[in-house]
Amino acid sequence: QVQLIESGGGLVQAGGSLRLSCAASGGAFSSYAVGWFRQAPGQEREFVAAISRSDGSTSYADSVKGRFTIAGANFKTTVYLYMNSLKPEDTAVYYCAAGPLHWGTIAVTPRDYNYWGQGTQVTVSS
Question: Are the beta carbons of 110 and 45 closer than 8 angstroms?
Fold first, then answer.
């Protein structure tokens, strides 16, 4: 019922920027957390950033803090991930995910998210 669609991935030079979008439909997300995760070839899916659609609070992985910004728009139906100062190690498939808030806080593990998009590829060249 709930559908998440990512877009905005592509090829970018190191130091460049990209904006990823996650559009949600089919459910109410005002009390949800929406997170971005990424998975590089041969590696596990890892947390990148998330936002509470309840109070707007955010959380970031240490590896992207200061470079990436997560923000909501379009009456809580869309979440953006602004990626700046991209590095080759940022190369991965990026997924958006949504799940209920736990005790009003943002979860940072994939198992805490119920709905997932199909992913969008981000490739950062040297």
Answer: yes
Query: Dihedral through CA 51, CA 68, CA 86, CA 47, nearest 10?
Result: -40
* Tokens 């659609």, located at residue: 53
61 CB-contact burial (10 Å; exposed 0-12 / middle 13-18 / buried 19+):
middle
Residue with tokens 């997300």: 29
Question: What is the pLDDT confidence band of residue 28, given thresholds at 50, 70 and 90?
Answer: low
Provide mean pLDDT across the span 104-110. Answer: 88
Lookup: tokens for 43: 């590696």
Residue 110, strand partner residues: none
Pairing outcome for strands 92-100 and 120-125:
antiparallel
Comparing CA positions, the residue from 101, 81, 90 lying closest to residue 38 is 90
**What six digits make up the tokens of 67?**
């470079």
Strand-pair partners of 39: 93
Measured CA to CA, the distance from residue 73 to residue 55 in angstroms comes to 13
Q: Are 48 and 68 in contact (CB under 8 A)?
A: yes
